Amino acid sequence: MKVINKRSLYWGCQLSGWLFYVLLQSLFFKLSDAFTADVAISQFLLLLFGIFISHLYRNIIVSFGWLKISTLRVIPLVIFSSVLFATLHEYAQYGVEMLLKIAANKHQSNILVATNILNLAFVYFFWSLIYFLFHFIENYKKAEIENLKWEAAINEIELNKLKSQLNPHFMFNAMNSIRALVDENPNKSKDAITQLSNILRNTLQMGKNKVIPFEEELNLVSDYLSLESIRYEERLKYIIQIHPQSKFFNVPPLMIQTLIENGIKHGISKLTNGGVISLLTEVKDNKLIISIRNSGQLKDEMKSESGFGIKNTLQRLQLLFGNNASLKISNQDSTTVLTELIIPKNINIYEGTTN
Predict the structure, then answer these.
(1) What is the pLDDT of residue 236?
(2) pTM for the full predicted model
């Protein structure tokens, strides 16, 4: 429905704009007592050729992506195109008028021809200004809406994430694990405190960046797994295998960490003997494929428990990458849950569309 309204607006503006120009010219002819049947036909042809050639001009603008290039680069193109299409308009209309035998001596004066082309060039230039201004305003509004949408969503996600991530159980468990190490292994306890502070700092800064380098997220995941391995001891084993090209990708902050936490909380922690969680990445077709496998089974009650975090993850992916990213969680086999996250590379999040 939105496309139909936009197309109707375009054609409405085309018709009304050229009709206004033709009526204005006809009025001048009328006031100078030069309005004849031939002039009326000529003005009608002016209307038809104006709509047709400006529409052709519009298709060139869209096809060659002029709406996406800088103002300094597009101005010379617009000036040249205005003169070119004005010339095309003048001679095409003259050709038809010759066929209809109403051209008379129209093109015997070079000055008159140049004047007609110059007048039409101003019309096409003014048409260009309106067309580019319309799309500039439209894309600006669209970007504003997307930014407001992002800010509102990220604020809600941040608050919810803080509630789920910085819950008292996690804090108490982490601090108790560190306290147990203070006498037994002071150096390891210092490292654990550093790791915990890294997690807290990155969580609190979540709303400042939409995406972060993969390596930063990997460092956070490593800190988180190190802390959890202190808590679970022999019950938690983890494997990390990273494709070398993964470092060239950006990922939403805390997203991988949330999925790792989900695997431990709803999978390994429920197993008497614990289990293994692995993080593997690969790069295919300019996309980062992140595979997280954890011991356990995905059951209906676990889906409802972990649904809040997964819902936030899906929402963030949609806001950032649209349909270019995906998240799937399923039972790989009878003992393993597979979470697969696909992140695209170099996606322009708020790229405008053209009419």
Answers:
(1) 94
(2) 0.52
